[in-house]
Amino acid sequence: MTEELHLFSVDDLIKVRRGVLTPIFRSLLKSATAHVEGCQLCQAKGFICEFCRAKDILFPFQTSKCFRCKECKSCFHKSCFKSEDCPRCARIEARKQQLSHSSSNTE
Hints:
Elements: H1 10-18, H2 21-38, H3 40-44, E1 66-68, E2 75-77, H4 87-105
Antiparallel strand pairs: 1-2
């Protein structure tokens, strides 16, 4: 089950029906979360909320507290992201405009 995300065997479906698969997934999630919290490489791939700049690291799988921008895929605290404006998208757009403006001036 963990090798192919969208491929389920008949045995997997039977386990779902019997309620056996939920504890297995909870255990797998707990193990994976513990790994991410303790792994330096995984921590480096996390996000810092650009609104509040809190020290806690956000990950996309933390759906209860994390909002993920649909465009740039950055993560923010749900409670901090109150507008439709993503700061990272705004920076990327400003940089594109600046590059476009500077390249048109050099021609």
